[in-house]
Amino acid sequence: MTGDPRAERAAATAVPVAYRSLQLRSLVAALGEVVDPPWWRTEFMSEAGMRFLERLYPRTAFRAAVNAVGKAACDAHDRATGRVGVYHLFRLPESLEVETCQFEPSTDEDFVANLRAALGEPALLLSLLDSFRGRAVAPADTVGAIRVDMTPERVDSGGLVTIASIYFDAFSGGKQVFPYFVSPEAEN
Fold first, then answer.
1. Angle at Cα 48 formed by Cα 43 and Cα 50, nearest 5°?
2. What is the H or E stretch that residue 119 is in?
3. What pLDDT is attached to residue 152?
4. Per-residue model confidence as pLDDT tens digits over 54-76
5. Which of 18, 58, 85, 157 is the most buried (most CB within 10 A)?
6. Phi and psi of 131, rounded to 5°?
7. Best CA proximity match to 79, nearest among 163, 145, 149
8. Which residues, 6 or more positions from 69, have their beta carbon under 8 angstroms from its beta carbon?
9. Burial class (CB in 10 A: 0-12, 13-18, 19+), 170
10. pLDDT of 122-160, one tens digit each?
11. Is the pLDDT reported for residue 5 higher than 50?
């Protein structure tokens, strides 16, 4: 303990944000594979893909699937938003990315079981994403790269809910979006 209440509060909230970002990343990765047309051409977040990965990575197949699809999703987002000073769900600020990678998705058995049951089913995956976004509403008729009011120093649950809402609107409407946020240095 440092004695600094702000530092302690930040440490307490960083863990849930990191895990929530992993959950959102998993949902968007799975949806990006099954929509028509697919946002990225991978098939790891499907039942067949999971069975394949379970042979190679028996204990960490779900993590391997999220990472593999995440690489393709990151490339798609980078092409739409750029790379320098720009962050998105599949390329978070380094400290949050490290925390996100430390979480094992299988620690939340309910989430993993619900997601596995929904793999390959766009309506079920959308339902999971809908519950993630809560009551947040995305800006109307958004397509392409969309800037979110968040900074790398201030990634929070509210920002993730906004991002989830933007993705939900896009997947529901057959549009492709790439929510992103920038570092203040990149704006200058």
1. 80
2. none
3. 83
4. 999 998 899 999 999 999 999 99
5. 18
6. -70, -30
7. 145
8. 29, 30, 32, 33, 40, 42, 44, 45
9. buried
10. 999 999 999 988 777 777 678 899 998 888 888 888 889
11. no
Q: By three-state DSSP, how is residue 149 classified?
A: coil
CA 85 from chain center: how many Å?
18
R_g over Cα of the chain: 16
Long-range contacts: 133-138, Cβ < 8 Å, 24+?
Answer: 133/161, 133/164, 133/165, 133/168, 134/161, 136/161, 136/162, 136/164, 136/165, 137/165, 137/169, 138/162, 138/165, 138/166, 138/168, 138/169, 138/170
d(CA 17, CA 100): 8
Q: Which two tokens stand for residue 30?
A: 């799975």
By CB atoms closer than 10 A (0-12, 13-18, 19+), residue 55 is exposed
Q: What are the structure tokens assigned to 170, written together? A: 């896009």
Q: What is the DSSP string of 22-88?
A: HHHHHHHHHHHHHSSS-SS---SSSHHHHHHHHHH-TTTHHHHHHHHHHHHHHHHHHHHH-STTEEE
What the block records as the tokens of 6 is 């702000």
The secondary structure of residue 138, as a DSSP letter, is: P
